[in-house]
């Protein structure tokens, strides 16, 4: 599973882990990515989307029909 939201495009952030002695090593902050399954009445089937927590809230707000239409306009295979 890729660590990228299909709707918002959210990806891991990179930076330094800094210890008490100020030694710096690389680390990453992963977004809260989840696979969510939605029923799309116009397609008469379920669609599985890889979304961040914010992406799930966006789907709840806009509706699954509008979200699938937006993803298809971007060229994402749904």
From TrEMBL:
Residues 1-26 are annotated as: Disordered. Belongs to the bacterial ribosomal protein bL28 family. The lineage of its organism: Bacteria, Bacillati, Actinomycetota, Actinomycetes, Pseudonocardiales. InterPro entries: Ribosomal_bL28, Ribosomal_bL28/bL31-like_sf, Ribosomal_bL28_bact-type, Ribosomal_bL28_sf. GO terms for cellular component: ribosome. Keywords: Ribonucleoprotein, Ribosomal protein. This is Large ribosomal subunit protein bL28. It comes from Lentzea sokolovensis. Transmembrane segments: none annotated.
């Amino acid at each position: 599973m890729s660590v990228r939201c299909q709707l918002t495009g959210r990806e891991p952030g990179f930076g330094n882990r800094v210890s008490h002695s100020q030694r710096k090593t690389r680390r990453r902050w992963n977004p809260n990515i989840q696979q969510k399954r939605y029923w799309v009445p116009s397609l008469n089937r379920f669609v599985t989307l890889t979304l961040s927590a914010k992406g799930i809230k966006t789907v709840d707000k806009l509706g699954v029909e509008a979200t699938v239409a937006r993803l298809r306009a971007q060229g994402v295979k749904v």
